[in-house]
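Encoded backbone
================
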Amino acid sequence: MRLKPRSTTRNPKALLYKRFIGLEKSANLQTIYKTVSDNLFWTFDCTTLTFTQIASSLVPQTSTLVSITDSTTILQYQGKYFRYGSTGWKNITDLPSSGVTLLSASFNNIAQYQMNKYYFVGSFDFMIKGSIEGTTAQYIKGNIIPLSALNIKYFDDNINLSPDDLVVIENKLFSVENPETTIKQQPKPFKIYFATLNNIL
C-alpha cells in the first residue's frame, strides 16, 4: 500500500485563490441630498427605493445639493413618498394635506455590472514537472512582456484547481490551465493531480 506524501519537496507552498462573481452598482452622484439636521449626505436608488449615505469627501463639486431641512420636506418618486427623521429615511403612505414641501426624487444609479473577485482557499505542496518554459508577449505595441509557464504535480485531495483559479508561488501570480487527474490502483485509488500555471504580471 502506498501512502500519499505529506510534503512533496522543500519548495514554498503554493497559495490558491478561487474566483467568484460580485455584483456591483455604479452611480454618477449628480444629485445629492443633504439632511440639515445631522449634516449627512445621501443618494437615492430607484431600483430598491432606498437612500444610501455617502461620505462628504466623496461628494463632487459638480453635484447638485438638495437640502432636506426638516420632516415636512417629502421626496416623491413614482407614487412613493419618503421622509427623513430621527430614525432615518421612511416610506410614508399618508401624505399630509398641507404644511409640507414636496420634491421630486432624482436617482443616480447608472447600471449594475459583474466583477471577478477572489477568496483565499488554502496552501498546498507541489512539485515542478518538467522544465519551465519562457516566451514573450506584446499586448501593447512596443511593450514586450516576458511570460513563463510551468507544469506542477501535487497530491492534496482537498485542493481542486480549475481554469478560473489563481495561484501564488514566491510572490508571483499564476493562472491555472489544463488541470488533470491521474488515477492509479495500488490497490486503492491513488490520485495524482497535474496543472499548467501561466504567470500574470
Remarks:
- The chain is about 0% helix and 65% strand.
- Residues 14-22+117-200 form a domain with the Thrombin, subunit H fold (CATH 2.40.10).
